[in-house]
Design goal:
single chain, 86 residues, mainly alpha, extended
């Protein structure tokens, strides 16, 4: 399976070097999420597709959904955001 996000993942990995032990799982989950998202977006922009590219895109989409929970923890509702700004 091609890995389109190698450069971006490497950059994020170096930016997030040596996280506290209690945050390590969160950082690795975030990197997996971002890798799947970037791979899916880049592959969707291919001008031509082979019979294999939709299979790869489906895998990236599934990985995206499996790993998105890391960001749901920090998601706020519009009501909460509005109340905080009052």
């Amino acid at each position: 399976m091609p890995n389109q996000s190698g450069g971006i993942s490497a950059m994020l990995d170096s930016a997030l070097q040596n996280p506290a032990r209690c945050l390590y799982h969160d950082f690795t989950s975030a990197l997996k999420y971002l890798s799947a998202l970037v791979d899916l977006c880049l592959m969707a922009q291919y001008p031509r597709h082979t019979p294999d590219t939709p299979v790869y895109m489906e895998r990236y989409l599934q990985k995206f959904h499996r790993t998105k929970d890391i960001f749901l923890e920090f998601h706020t509702l519009k009501v909460t955001h509005a109340e905080a700004n009052c």
